[in-house]
Design goal:
Number of domains: 2
Structural class: alpha+beta
Strand content: 15-25%
Low-confidence stretches: 32-41, 181-190
Strand order of the largest sheet: 1-2-3-4-5
Radius of gyration: 27 Å
Distance between the termini: 91 Å
Mean pLDDT: 82
Length: 190
Amino acid sequence: MKQKMMLLQTIIITLSAVVLLMLISKLEGIQPYWNSSHTVFAEQKPIQLSDDNLVNEFIQLDLPVRLSKVEINGSILSVDLKVTENELSKANMYMGMAEIISFTFKRTTNIDQLLLRLVAEDRWVGGKYLLLAADVRRGSWPSSALTELKNTGDNDLAPELKSWFRVTESRLWKKRLQTNNEINGNITLE
């Protein structure tokens, strides 16, 4: 008797589920979840960068080089990346630059100029030294430029990249970080 009751309950539950699914599928204008498309990796909507959201937006970036200073003045964003002796990898510096440039011009609507500086910090005396500066402007470089910058690795920047991003290298950069001045890949700030 117990088995018959259990079988009857199972049949009733199954039939109820079938009827319920049929009713749901017949509703006009509503697609079942399994037939609709869903965006998994959506691009984030462009934002209006301001003093109010500046910190929150930059905290989300995954940068290989630390931020030292970020300022916004109208449509101009100024960013300093702090480089210590342990982080003197040109590949990491270029990746950090590419991330900042990408964020600035792909994720914001109100920034037209990015002033980006790589600043070396001497931990012993606390001095700061300019390594490289870039004056990047919206629309003045091809879309392939960011990929080129990311793929530069530990090589010197191509002349086109320097031109597109208006890059200026300091004497310290030229003395310590240019490929022809590196000794066995070791770079120091001495």
